[in-house]
Amino acid sequence: MNIKVERERRKNFRLEHSEDGKFLARVPYNADEKEVEDFLRKHRIWIKKRNEEFMRVSEMRRDLSSKRKRNFLFMGNEYEVSVSDSTRCFDFDGIFHVSPGCVEDVVGHFKRFCRNELLQVLDRRVPYYSRKLGLEYSKYTIGSSITMWASCDKSRRLRFSWRLAMAPPEVIDYVIVHELVHTEMFLHDRTFYERVGKEIPDWKEKKMWLRKNSAKIRLMTDQKDPSNGSK
Ligand SMILES: [Zn+2]
Questions:
Q1: 17 C-alpha to center of ligand 1: Å?
Q2: Strand ranges (DSSP E) for 65-177?
Q3: Which residues share a beta bridge with 15?
Q4: Ligand 1 centroid to 152 CA: how many Å?
Q5: Do 182 and 139 fall into the same domain?
Q6: 43 and 75 fall within a common domain
Q7: Rounded to the nearest whole angstrom, what is the distance from the C-alpha of residue 132 to the centroid of ligand 1?
Q8: Could you give the number of structural domains in the chain?
Q9: Is the domain of 125 the same as that of 217?
């Protein structure tokens, strides 16, 4: 690894790592070779770590800007993710923008974005369908389940996966109605789907959308870092 050494009028040694991955050691004019070597040796782990980190981020940036670039589904449409030096970390205006410094956690940012958006939909649609269908729930929350879109427990608490924000609005409506009907009946039998079908006649299509897109959604939102994987 190439580390540039710059001699200048200063008393102490200083090591810098710039955004473009270059290392610069600022050393006093009168420092001898051995002192400089010792200084760099002392910081070799820091240098190694910073360099690895830089390589990892560069690779992700390359992936994102290459043909294998990342797309995110949102409300049923696919949008590309572009790395740009905008001031904000993560933004959406018809495409998703992520700043270079936030590329690594792009799924985390997308997840928070989806949570917010989904919450706004749920705040409108859950009470609406609850009143319309005369089905009461105790509360609803947003979780991170990767295997289930939503669930309803015996205490009539509804739980929706943040990934549901990736589905079209009419599919989200179907899931809301589905879970609300569960507050009255637990099994997925004929009566259950008859009740769902009264509100959502083409529920089979919505169900099919979820089935067809679940693998893709899982792939798009795969977070390598396990500490971000749950919740
Ligand atoms: Zn169900």
A1: 53
A2: 71-74, 77-83, 90-92, 96-98, 139-143, 150-152, 157-161
A3: 25
A4: 8
A5: yes
A6: no
A7: 19
A8: 3
A9: yes
- Residuewise pLDDT in 10s, the chain (231 residues): 789 999 999 999 999 998 788 999 999 999 999 999 999 999 999 999 889 888 877 776 666 555 457 889 999 999 989 888 766 889 999 899 998 888 888 999 999 999 999 999 999 999 999 999 999 999 999 999 888 999 999 999 999 999 999 999 999 999 999 999 999 999 999 999 999 999 999 999 999 999 888 888 887 887 653 333 333
Do 160 and 196 lie in one domain? The reply is yes
Ligand 1 mean position to 117 CA, how many Å? 23
123 CA from centroid of ligand 1 (Å): 20
Q: How far apart are the first and last CA of the chain?
A: 39
Residues 143 and 190 in one domain: yes
For residues 100 and 83, the answer to whether their CB atoms sit within 8 Å is yes
Same-domain check for residues 164 and 187? yes
Cα 166 to Cα 22: distance, rounded to the nearest angstrom:
39
In whole angstroms, what is the distance from residue 96 CA to residue 43 CA? Answer: 38
Strand partners, 29: none
| Containing structural domain, residue 92 | 65-106
Q: SS3 for 18? A: coil
- Centre of ligand 1 to C-alpha 182, Å, is 7
Here the tokens at position 141 are 């929350």
| CB atoms inside a 10 Å sphere around CB 205 | 12
User: Residue 22, by phi and psi: left (phi above 0), alpha (psi -120 to 50) or beta?
Assistant: beta
Ligand 1 centre distance from Cα of residue 213 (Å): 18
